[in-house]
Amino acid sequence: MKHHSNHLRKKYEDKIDEALHNIENCSGMTKEEAKNVLLEKVEEKSRAEISHIVRKYEEEAKQEGKSRANYILAQATSRFAGEFAHERLTNLVHLDNDELKGRIIGKEGRNIKALESLLGVDIIIDDTPNAILVSSFNLYRRAIATKTLQLLIEDGRIQPARIEEIFQKVSDEFEAGILAEGEELIADMNIGVMHPELTRLIGRLRYRASYGQNALAHTLEVAHLAGIMAAEMGGNLILAKRAGLLHDIGKALTHDHDGNHVDLGAEICRRYNEDTVVINAIYAHHGQQEIESIECGAVCAADALSAARPGARREVLESFLKRVTEIEEIASRHLGVKQAYAINAGREVRVIVNATLVNDDESILMAKEIAGEIEEKVQYPGDVRVSVIRESRAVEYAK
């Protein structure tokens, strides 16, 4: 693996040298002249950044009067909104005594650092008696993190190697659990057999929300409603239920893959030879295709009914989730990134890079590039802190 990384780096550096050589030839400038031109441009850009900061603070001073009034309004509304967001974005882990907090933090914070980087969540340890909070917009990660912490606390041996061991065990159990849950749902729906990969994704919908509405609850609602409607209209009840169950299957993939849930869902259903009615329902419920059958029409009507039910959806939460997902995706696209986690309600992104592919200087540059991309592509209030962490690990076995 290391040899492969070195080979990649050598190839990467050769390409840079080749590009420099071509630029020298094309521009008629030596490397030294080009460097001077580049430094001038950097200096200009730095001056522009300084003036941008000055303008920003002047603008902030003008806004202060407005902000005071807004602050009073925000204080009143956040008492309600805080409760709602807290319920959907955090899990509480009970502790038998507050001494455990120190052990979870560990010597010089090593345990909590290991936990947060491995689990991809924000762990909040404050003055709340006998409790810590696990915070993340990703329900699946949060559920695994909560279970891992509970097992560690029961076990009592809290240290980085044990954390990794228990996390791996819990992750494997969750994967097996979601497959079993998917199988149970399909058996209850009485819709015939389904490919294990699709079955697993249906189980995974329990850990996905859309506009604050649980994706699995919505999917089951749509499947049952579509079946009843299709049967009333003389269509195929089983096919309508199947299309209802799979219409949002792409949502189980959007946390881990680029692309929208419609295209992802249609692609995976085609791969596992689902009926054309199912594919049509996936596209048609978002208006990307015409409705071609009674069953598809029933799914589209059921989807609209389920989403329009009073209290079913929350637009504010969805825009927040979209923003933090986008921040993670921007960071993950960079070469050498192993994991990227948006934490602290999207105000920080923690990027863990492969130490053999990214050196110290490159990690500084990467942090700057990611911050620039977030600034350009994502709408967010306040600042987003980008932390790039290089981790080098040496593993050897005594035999």
Question: Which helices and strands occur, and which strands form pairs?
Answer:
Layout (H helix, E strand, L loop, with lengths): L1 H26 L3 H59 E5 L4 H7 L4 H10 L2 E3 L6 E5 L3 H17 L4 H30 L6 H9 L4 E2 L2 E2 H18 L4 H10 L14 H11 L4 H9 L9 H15 L6 H18 L4 E7 L4 E7 L5 H18 L7 E7 L8
Parallel strand pairs: 7-8
Antiparallel strand pairs: 1-3, 2-3, 4-5, 6-7
**Nearest-integer average pLDDT:** 77
Q: pLDDT under 50 segments (min length 5)?
A: 75-87
- The end-to-end span amounts to 21 Å
| CATH topology assignment of the largest domain | Hypothetical protein af1432
* Domains (count): 4
Can you summarize the main beta sheet?
A: 3 strands, antiparallel
Helix-strand topology string = HHEHHEEHHHEEHHHHHHEEHE
- Assign the structural class, choosing from mainly alpha, mainly beta, alpha/beta, alpha+beta, or little secondary structure: mainly alpha
CATH class of the largest domain: Mainly Alpha
Q: Your description of this structure?
A:
The protein is mainly α. The chain has four domains: 2-67; 95-173, K Homology domain, type 1 (Ribosomal Protein S8, Chain: A, domain 1), CATH 3.30.1370; 207-313, Orthogonal Bundle (Hypothetical protein af1432), CATH 1.10.3210.10; 316-391, Alpha-Beta Plaits (2-Layer Sandwich). Helix content is 64%, strand content 10%. The chain is built from 14 helices and eight strands. Strand 7 (348-354), helix 14 and strand 8 form a beta-alpha-beta unit. The two termini are 21 Å apart. Mean pLDDT is 77; it is low at 75-87.
